[in-house]
Please model this.
Amino acid sequence: MAILYRAGCQLFCTFIVFAGLFLVPSTSLPYARRVIGLNNHALPSDSSSSVQYDVKYFTQTLDHFSFTPQSYVTFQQKYLINSKHWGGASSNSPIFIYTGNEGYIEWFTQNTGFMFDIAPQFKALLVFIEHRYYGESMPFGSQDVAYSNATTMGYLSSSQALADFAILITDLKKNLTAEDSPVVVFGGSYGGMLAAWFRLKYPHIAIGALASSAPILAFDYIVNPDGFDNIVSNDFRSESENCYNVIKKSWKILEEMSSTPSGRKSLKESFRLCKDSDVDGVEGWLSGAYFEAAETDYPTPANFIQNLPAYPVKQMCKAIDNPSSEKNILSQLYGAANIYYNYTGNLSCFDLGFGDPHGESGWGFQYCTEMVMPMGDDPIESMFPGYTFNYTETMQGCAYANGIEPRPHWITTEFGGHNIKRVLKRFGSNIIFFNGLRDPWSNGGVLEDINESIVAIIAKEGAHHVDLRFATMDDPKWLIQVRKKEIGIIKRWIMQYYKDLHTT
Amino acid sequence: MAILYRAGCQLFCTFIVFAGLFLVPSTSLPYARRVIGLNNHALPSDSSSSVQYDVKYFTQTLDHFSFTPQSYVTFQQKYLINSKHWGGASSNSPIFIYTGNEGYIEWFTQNTGFMFDIAPQFKALLVFIEHRYYGESMPFGSQDVAYSNATTMGYLSSSQALADFAILITDLKKNLTAEDSPVVVFGGSYGGMLAAWFRLKYPHIAIGALASSAPILAFDYIVNPDGFDNIVSNDFRSESENCYNVIKKSWKILEEMSSTPSGRKSLKESFRLCKDSDVDGVEGWLSGAYFEAAETDYPTPANFIQNLPAYPVKQMCKAIDNPSSEKNILSQLYGAANIYYNYTGNLSCFDLGFGDPHGESGWGFQYCTEMVMPMGDDPIESMFPGYTFNYTETMQGCAYANGIEPRPHWITTEFGGHNIKRVLKRFGSNIIFFNGLRDPWSNGGVLEDINESIVAIIAKEGAHHVDLRFATMDDPKWLIQVRKKEIGIIKRWIMQYYKDLHTT
Model:
């Protein structure tokens, strides 16, 4: 039986593993976000009147940690800056930095309204820095060249990205004569990991970090690899036991149908797939919808990964539980998928081809080098078909290009993670780890306070970095409280900083 | 007038700058330790019965921070291990690591007797790790190949070295099933910088660091660039005002003599130089002797850089103050130099050619890439002729090979340093910064407590990492007290760790 597997793509990338091998495009290196890409995603736009910024570019060095001739190659790193509310350098007003993750920086900027919302009260300068090898911040002139082989792609790494941030921020502060302005870093998801690591590795540059939905413990078996999909499953189960059961039993049916011509015809028609070959991607397409709906199970309508109603998991389960389709599992599943992938109702058929509307395709390389996150399915507890993660298979699946092999223990060696409570109990300060427990990524999050200023904020109703989204009139009380708490903590960091500034 | 200048070689490398340009061998990349190299240095030996170890090699990755095909190249990293007193993994007995610096690891091991002295009371495993590109730990098979150009040499960097340590230690602990054994890192000079940075960057691997004579503030004008030579000058002045004055007035005389054939002849004869061309190196040779004598002004006889009597600065000043030679400045200076360079009396003449008995020649590359330490001379306060450091000259002097340019702000960007007290006051723990105030490198050291567990230990009579040397019967009280204090602090770290281990 085919093994269905959702790998460690930070936000939502989906892979299908058959017989332990990633089904990856054989001709191109990056293969992130395979299967679930659709063509109806809106490209980043800055139509929102709240999201205003100037676009800037910084001449960045390719390799900070070596001194080979190649390391001196430079590229243009994009960043967005909003100084509307900044109190200025003369008053040492704060600088809030978003440590960009795997995609267009505009996309993350638009989905980090929290920083815009709080800028006025902090008189903060806002800066959103794009991560190297994503969006426009492409070494070697273009994505085609940068992604063409491991010799050019190989400088895509979290350590290089953190050093990029360090250098850009230091230079920016100097240019603004704002050396004494406190910097607070913000990030969600992989960007949240970067924010937390940035505070730990560069305490001389950032006085604190808000690391939202940052699964820094998702590596090296620190947490249960099956926990991610268990959370997805429990999200659906929390809406309805029937919903969970229908999905759980569907995999076998889908698998059997996809093995016969008549079954494939039926799958194509039932799911309104555009092409015959899309049938091979149905399992990944559906599991992607479940995973991402759980991830983005926001309490208000949102257009982050997809344009979705409030509480999409509830809506999908409603479709599955719909009495009019209950005798036909395919139409139940279709109903759920249609909510996730076609809430606006614009699509006449689903094209499961590779699409990359948010500029994330470099993540495949990161996943296959350093971001090796063990993730499997528990066949009993989860609604997924069951898969035991193992490194060997992952390595086999990854070692497809130029002999580049995963370094599965690198992240924990470089950034820690094992016994984090003991390690950081007496080391480090000023990090907020926010996690929403409906978010599968919370499985890899820091869920307990580590010391008095490295703290965990938990929202059991929360989804993937929901705290970082723009406030809306419909926000539930718990979300208002979370943000209030975060604001209070950041204020204390800054006040403490000013006090220290004047006494040391 | 020629500008005499002693650049940032960590232990004792000396450069001469004429008209602002380094006088470097034009044919080879590494040029550290120019001028002062002599051929009478003993090669590392392990004759001391107290210094026993097994020699091991670890397969290390060339580039930890990138994922190019080249980054996967491996090399053999040497380390020395002594398990004689180790209490073993079952009792989580500690592991003491020396983070090797720029030279043969045997050399540092022999000069870090403190670790051997305290191993029994801590039941500690001792491990001394050689730094990449030094000694035997040479990528690309040999020093000739590794040092041949910047494409192979470029992976020599402090960040790569720290990651080497992290990976080796993690692997070693795993192989010993000693994952819960606390690791304390020790280092002197550049090795002390690495120890301190290792604790800051890898708190999940080392519970604490003894950073001895680690000039982590020697970068980016954090401290007065002239302070190093002022300390040397004050050391000599503290022995005798005449000694200081003779040296101070000597430079002009030497300069004038070296510009005429008869003067050169006289210099060659007076200093017993082997070759005519050695005359060009006399100023660097003498200033090297003053700098290094101040650095190694130990209270007991020692053979670290040179075989020297106790308090060599005092002995050199005695030679200068010697009434029998007081009418002849050249014979005064010769007397001092002869004590420093020929205390054993074995040399019939001085060969000022390039020698590298301790395997440090890679430092020139480090100095010219990341370890750019501003150092000059104050013409009033110091006994040196006066030189105002500037980056432009340094860069011109360094940009001689393959377009490799210095990154003078990199160290402070990556590791901090500016406002260190404010930055680390509420961040980080468990570092001892030892400095002896007679050591010129103490100018770049941390001389004040930063928080309750990042502490400074100062010995006003102390020289370069004197605390790390073997205890002797003749050690002065202050030195005994320093070591006692260090032992007490390290004990507290370990006890705290065990307590945390059992409660978290």
